[in-house]
Amino acid sequence: MAYIESTHNDRVRAWARLKTRRGRERAGLFLVEGERLVADLLKSSLRLEALLWNVASDEPPEALWRHPKADGRRFELSPQAFAAVADTETPQGLMAIAAVPQHEPGYGPRVLVLDGVQDPGNVGTLVRSAEAFGFGEVVIGPGTADPYAPKVVRASMGGLFRVHAIACGVEHYLRVWRDRHPGGVVVATAADAVDRCDEAPMAGEVAVIIGNEARGVSDGARRLAHRCVAIPMAGEADSLNAAMAGTILLYEAYRQASNRAI
After folding, report:
1. What is the pLDDT of residues 160-193, one digit of tens each?
2. In this protein, which residues make up the domain named RNA 2-O ribose methyltransferase substrate binding (predicted)?
């Protein structure tokens, strides 16, 4: 176990750079903050690089601090060094550094495709919803927020550790997916759609596309969709944000699949 006091320490500087996309891409690492997320990380198959504890905070949970994955990777940090690494303004006393997993496209039977979803909170929430409703792969299309950005990691609430996030061109992915699942359906959200989301067949093999917050699903992705659907609403709002709309579609797909299984 090592103690690090200075914010100018080489390790601290390297870990602090993980708050930027460029830093994460260069190092192949990302930051995980808070006891709950650290616990989820340690349960996952992702590789732990370092476990960091703020010496000014309460003692870390023994089960996490003494986890076998952390052997030889524990670091005690001064409050100043810990704050330099943390992304949050009032960080909890425990953080981890993990390796970004290198997943290949699996083209599984139930996938979520993010087509330029820019807001990190939306991306994290959608990853969380995908994991909750049985979608094991999330495609991170061009223009979509980095799934390993600290805010995305926090918003995913551990879902990012259990689903495969794949950086891939949306149109290429959908073409391959359609070829591999000839009986499947590609469903895209569209404000001008006539079909309701509960009328689209999503009980079986399905790819759900969620588009950019302002522009919606791109023209290329929309052309590859079998169905464009809208969410029926009773109020005067003409749309929902990407995370809410996506979660409703993912739940609808889960509901249909569950009903078919009964």
Report:
1. 999 999 999 999 999 999 999 999 999 998 878 8
2. 31-104
